[in-house]
Write a structure and sequence with these properties.
The complex is a heterotrimer of chains A (316), B (315) and C (391). With 315 residues, chain B is an all-alpha fold. Helix content of chain B is 75%, strand content 3%. In chain B, strands 1-2 form a two-stranded antiparallel sheet. In chain B, a hairpin with a 3-residue loop joins β1 (157-160) and β2. In chain B, α2 runs antiparallel to α9 and α4 crosses α9 (214-240). In chain B, 52% of the residues are buried. The chains are: A mainly alpha (316), B mainly alpha (315), C alpha/beta (391).
């Protein structure tokens, strides 16, 4: 129990010390990975803890991102105003989607969450609400008193702070009564209901929290890129974050972070012409085959790898 | 739906006689054409969705790669067109057979391993399959947008109203879909194979206990589903061009159709497809900006009313 | 525990090493790095290839050097996807460290490129994308266009349509920046000339299911239809328009993109169509003839407006580099020279406005055979109003 704190803390310290060592490109890459780690962690609450497979989680990422840009307008604004707006907007849509889709189960749930994400996608893609398929640009980044997220160093630490807070929050949540109830729902919902728990409300609460955290990731993404696009809500994005979870290993918060790192790096690697030559432009093929191999051979993800080796060591 | 449009057609013909009715007649003619557009789109959607709902209802596999079969069909049409020229129906039949063979092999090599896995893994593996298909297509045929010609004996159209002509090919597309739908109904409800399919769907283990070769059955059903989607793609190719990513857009709409219609129900898929066709087509005309959203709103409304879809496994 | 670090750090280290290797190699030699960000796949693929060919032709004609320095090329396929644009342009700017960005076709992607170019002070030459905003509110000294703004050919077409006596128009296009701006330019001139645009139809990019919208056009019975599509979409629309029988009664107008590079695929459906553009295939000038011959000899294909724009992009860059004798550190002098140049283009001579857009003649052309043939000058020396540009 005590040991499980060491790795995340060490990792956090390493991350905090990194900036001076990194080239601009790698700097961007690390920030991107951290943001996706927050996104993956938010989905882990749904998939890993509560057992709800959502194929529409990117909608909340996208809504958080879009609200950030829309609320900033032409002159930017304070983080204290824009961040809560983004998170609340994402949580609000999560409440709407959750209330409707949690009435369904299993495969229906998967398809329905996908469809609701598509609905949000089309609102941003087709209507004049927000720049259509070209997306929108963030001209002035949010500030807080003297700190501006326009400064690369500040942005870096802000993202790392968000990652640490999200991880800690979810770890605490998992150990709380609420978290235990969710775990019970994952294992056997009927039994929980029989024990008197209002499972629908618990699931909805988890769904909204997950949506809110995804909105946080969306805020960070919008600020980092300075641009938002309807593709942020596409099912490709939702599929990607699920992939991150399964790459890392479902059921552990660390799995979400590891998965985010692994997925982003894999994508970068597969696109490097220096390594793969002509196959680099067809990186989706290599990625697809890798995923199939992974899910087939390592369904417990990278974390499962360690267990296997550890188990092997113990049992000789 | 069709009955309503037919009645309007009769009224429309009578009314165009008088000049003072001309405005109403033009509106009626337009409405009629839009009806035809909606039905044609809905029927094509049905072809794809029926395959998806069959595979899902009978084998319990959620297959994200189903849209790719549609794309494969379209590219097949593009590839085969130079060899078949006028012999369009022959080309369709050959394409269907090729697609069915491909489906058969794919089930044996890949999908048969998915039945025991949890939904999340099925989702991810079939998602990865989409990526693989897209890239293989990119390697084989490139990434350009291609037009496919309708066969010469279906070119041109007939006058509808004052300015429009409705293309013959679209009529052919609708008719072909109806023929296939009837064929599907007949196979599922009136043949031994259909009986085995329904048995396997109701209770897999019991059916196996009774001596049905479930593995072979699944392979056949899967091949059928792939063939249906590919056929839809081949028919749609002259209508919507052949381009990368055409599978993705069809897939999501098909999911909506299956959710609205009820998983495993072909009748439900038919009704839902036509509903979606109407909402989409008329949405484009009246609510240009929100037409994309319309279909999902429809789904949301249906879900509030009946969370398991319109028809629950009633063939 | 060891396996954690193993699985995380090894790919990270490998990636870092590979990227460092790329960076080091690039700094060792002295050529100017030109990064192409163009669509090499998708509906605009042929346009991307034509632009690159045109650019390289000019460099080749100058002996492989501009301003006395060799050129080293980098490419990224932007797939005409605005969502990947920021990532893609960062690959060229931050990973490959290019000196000059050349791109792109899709206006949405170009907007992202312009923003990145402004943020990083990278030189950007746009060989096609006509987004008004780039030489409008987003204008900057280091951003120059060798093509047009979406407003220019559209405005000219609106003027032509109004002069022909049309009173009622319907516009149809894709739902993205280029489409919206083109339609607005048309409407501005058309309504100034006494007409009215009764309906704006659009569909999501790059959809080609026009059936419902064509039905709507027939129902509304306008005098003219103005359409903005390009590449594969243009082919499909013109053919569908003819297949619906509308081309016999309602003339279809559009900017040249509707028929440029697509006439062979459109066939009989496009014959006789009037379009406006800053170029016509058969412009009978010495410059154009020499250019088309050179292009045909080098690439065994007929040049089109996109090739001309790529060619002129190289000319503009060359003029700037020559003025500073190849010294890219003299950034202000370089961009000033690029703005002051009179480009001897195959389309005719043109200058660059302070906002960075070509000031050029717009021609009226008619589609005949496989060429868009010059008929008249629609508007002479048309300058984009550059609304919102503070330069």
């Amino acid at each position: 129990m005590k040991r499980s704190w060491i790795v995340p803390v060490v990792a956090a310290l390493v991350l905090l010390a990194l900036p001076p060592v990194l080239s601009p490109y790698l700097h961007d890459l690390v920030v991107k990975i951290a943001i996706y780690a927050v996104f993956a962690l938010s989905l882990e609450l749904l998939v890993g803890v509560t057992g709800l497979v959502s194929l529409g989680h990117a909608a909340f990422l996208g809504i958080g991102a879009y609200v950030t840009v829309l609320a900033s307008g032409d002159s930017g604004g304070s983080i204290a105003r824009i961040l809560p707006l983004a998170v609340l907007a994402a949580a609000g849509y999560a409440l709407f989607v959750g209330a409707l889709s949690l009435r369904t189960k299993g495969v229906y749930f998967i398809m329905v969450t996908l469809a609701f994400a598509q609905m949000a996608y089309f609102v941003f893609h087709d209507t004049k609400l927000a720049g259509g398929s070209d997306g929108l640009f963030l001209y002035v980044k949010p500030t807080l008193v003297t700190l501006s997220l326009d400064d690369k160093r500040t942005m870096y630490y802000a993202v790392m702070l968000a990652l640490v807070v999200t991880y800690a929050l979810l770890a605490l949540l998992q150990r709380s009564r609420f978290g235990h109830a969710l775990a019970g729902i994952r294992v056997n919902e009927q039994r929980m209901r029989a024990a008197g728990y209002p499972t629908f409300r618990y699931k909805l609460a988890a769904f909204v929290i997950a949506g809110a955290l995804a909105g946080l990731a969306g805020f960070l993404l919008a600020v980092k890129d300075g641009a938002v696009n309807p593709e942020l809500l596409s099912w490709h994005e939702s599929g990607a974050v699920l992939l991150m979870l399964i790459l890392g290993g479902i059921g552990h918060l660390r799995g979400a972070v590891i998965g985010a790192i692994a997925f982003t790096l894999l994508k970068e690697l597969f696109q490097l012409e220096a390594l793969l030559g002509p196959l680099a432009s067809h990186w989706q093929l290599t990625l697809g085959l890798t995923i199939i191999a992974f899910v087939a051979l390592l369904p417990k993800g990278l974390i499962g790898l360690r267990r296997r080796f550890a188990a092997g060591a113990v049992h000789g | 739906m069709a009955g309503g449009c037919a009645a309007l057609l009769f009224d429309g013909l009578r009314l165009t006689q008088a000049d003072s009715y001309r405005i109403a007649a033009v509106d009626l003619a337009t409405f009629l054409v839009q009806c035809l557009n909606a039905v044609q789109y809905g029927l094509l959607l049905f072809l794809v969705a029926s395959g998806l709902t069959l595979i899902f209802g009978i084998m319990g596999v959620i297959n994200l790669a189903h849209g790719s079969f549609y794309m494969i069909g379209a590219y097949l049409a593009f590839a085969l067109a130079p060899y078949f020229g006028d012999w369009f129906v022959t080309q369709l039949i050959v394409g269907v057979l090729l697609a069915a063979a491909f489906g058969y092999l794919l089930e044996w090599a890949f999908f048969s391993f998915l039945y025991q896995r949890e939904h999340l893994q099925q989702v991810l593996m079939t998602y990865a399959l989409i990526l693989v298909f897209e890239e293989v297509r990119s390697l084989l045929v490139g990434n350009d947008v291609h037009g496919v010609q309708a066969p010469p004996w279906l070119a041109g159209g007939f006058r509808l109203g004052e300015l429009m002509s409705y293309p013959w090919y679209r009529v052919f597309a609708s008719v072909a879909c109806v023929v296939v739908a009837i064929g599907l109904y007949w196979v599922v409800n009136r043949t031994r194979l259909g009986m085995m399919i329904r048995a396997g769907a109701s209770n897999r283990d019991m059916a196996r206990g009774l001596g049905l070769n479930i593995r072979l059955l699944y392979r056949i059903v899967f091949a059928g589903g792939v063939a249906l989607a590919a056929l839809a793609g081949m028919i749609a190719a002259p209508l919507s061009s052949v381009y990368p990513g055409m599978g993705g857009s069809v897939l999501i709409i098909c999911f909506v159709v299956v959710v609205i219609g009820g998983i495993g129900s072909i009748t439900g898929a038919l009704i839902a497809s036509l509903l979606v066709g109407v909402v989409d087509t008329f949405g484009k005309v009246f609510f240009a900006e929100y037409s994309g959203v319309g279909v999902y709103l429809l789904m949301a409304v249906i879900l509030v009313w009946r969370p398991e879809g319109l028809m629950k496994r009633a063939y | 525990m060891p396996f954690h670090t193993f699985t995380i750090k090894t790919p990270l280290a490998a990636a870092a090493l590979a990227l460092c290797a790329l960076g080091a190699h690039a700094q060792a030699s002295a050529p100017i790095k030109v990064g192409f960000m163009l669509p090499y796949t998708g509906t605009y693929a042929s346009l991307g290839n034509m632009i690159e060919s045109g650019f390289k032709l000019y460099v080749q004609e100058q002996g492989g050097k501009l301003g006395g320095r060799e050129i080293q090329y980098f490419k990224v396929d932007d797939e005409s996807e605005p969502s990947k644009a920021t990532d893609n342009v960062n690959k060229l700017i931050k990973r490959d460290n290019v000196d000059v960005l050349v791109g792109t076709v899709h206006s949405g992607v170009a907007l992202a490129m312009a923003k990145a170019a402004k943020d990083n002070s990278t030189l950007l030459i746009i060989p096609n994308a006509g987004a008004d905003a780039i030489t409008g509110p987003m204008c900057a000294a280091n951003i120059v266009r060798s093509s047009f703004s979406n407003w220019q050919p559209a405005y000219a077409m609106g003027k032509v349509a109004a002069e022909k006596g049309a009173k009622k128009a319907i516009t149809i296009t894709w739902n993205y920046a280029a489409g919206a701006e083109s339609v607005k330019g048309f409407a501005e001139a058309f309504e100034k000339g006494g007409g009215k645009v009764v309906k704006d139809l659009n569909l999501p990019f790059p959809g080609v299911e026009f059936q419902a919208l064509l039905t709507e056009i027939a129902a509304q019975k306008p005098d003219v239809v103005y359409a903005f599509f390009a590449g594969g979409g243009a082919v499909k629309f013109v053919k569908d328009y003819a297949a619906a029988g509308l081309n016999k009664t309602i003339p279809l107008y559009g900017p040249g993109f509707l028929t440029d590079g697509t006439l062979e695929a459109q066939g009989a459906a496009a014959q006789g169509m009037l379009t406006t553009l800053h170029y016509a295939d058969n412009l009978d000038t010495a410059r154009n003839n020499a250019f088309r011959k050179s292009f045909a000899l080098t690439y065994k294909a007929n040049a089109d407006v996109y090739a001309v724009q790529g060619y002129d992009a190289a000319q503009i860059l060359g003029a700037g580099l020559t003025a500073v004798k190849g010294d890219m550190s003299k950034r202000d002098a370089l961009t000033a020279a690029m703005h002051k140049v009179t480009v001897d283009s195959p389309r005719g001579k043109f200058t660059i406005s302070p906002a960075g857009n070509p000031v050029q003649d717009i021609y009226l052309r008619e589609a005949k055979g496989n060429n868009n043939e010059y008929r008249a000058v629609a508007i002479k020396a048309l300058a984009d109003p550059a609304r919102g540009c503070k330069l």
